[in-house]
């Protein structure tokens, strides 16, 4: 039976209360007075008409144990998610977008989020911490709220500051924690391959270098005093009084040089020389020999003055007008 609304019979709703503060609903923003606390409660923290309670942090189910706050119960406990995002590359024609893999860390103690991309050597792009650790607001129009543990799941997209991240998988601790929270985890998803990286691997592209450094010291230390010996001969039968001559070739692995000795038999009538060819490097392809003055070729080579092969000046007579001595004297006089 309800009490009548008479003096002395009405219920005082302030009995037992000790908080009677009033929330600040008005403030100045950029020098303009405006209402900034439309979502704040009324006197004493009570909700006004039409307001609903919004949790500021993650709500965890009640269980057995102590009622310690989250920053004590979940100290140094972090959820780790594998994710990736696509970055457009409009300034290059070899690639239209990049697939960049990253890690999303959710700290249970204060609902802060950190996004880190593993650093790769010589990647050419800034990597490391993409988003520093802090509370990230939800996309508009719910930007007055923040992400909590209930917004995360595997194989779903999540937006941080207008950048879409695709969560592909998580570590075992994160999986067990979300299952205990009652979250139905989706099956893991695969990360797509980066098209440009795949193209480079298929083409086996390597950086072009102006020269390739040869480590001569390493070659010397590994192959010092190692010599290859070959038995050979020189067929000199086409020349006058020529005959085959036995030779010994030594190839030094330490510096890629070679030397040749001649095998001189006793009573052969030949002088014994120390070496047939001194030690040194030999070109694989011999240079094309130059035509000497007076040699019969398609062009007549005339020596103007100076010794042969030592800075002398020559003239090429393609018309072959210098077939006799008189014409040669005329050309020399004109020069």
From TrEMBL:
Keywords: Cell projection, Cytoplasm, Cytoskeleton, Repeat
Pfam assignment, any one: DM10_dom
Subcellular location: Cytoplasm, Cytoskeleton, Cilium axoneme
Residue span, DM10 domain: 75-182, 224-335
Chief localisation class: cytoplasm
Any one GO biological process: regulation of neuron projection development
Gene3D superfamilies, A to Z: 2.30.29.170
Taxonomic superkingdom: Eukaryota
Claim: Repeat is one of the keywords in the record: yes
GO cellular component: axoneme; microtubule
Statement: the UniProt record of this protein carries the keyword Cytoplasm: yes
PANTHER family in the cross-refs: EF-HAND DOMAIN C-TERMINAL CONTAINING PROTEIN, EF-HAND DOMAIN-CONTAINING FAMILY MEMBER C2
Protein name: EF-hand domain (C-terminal) containing 2
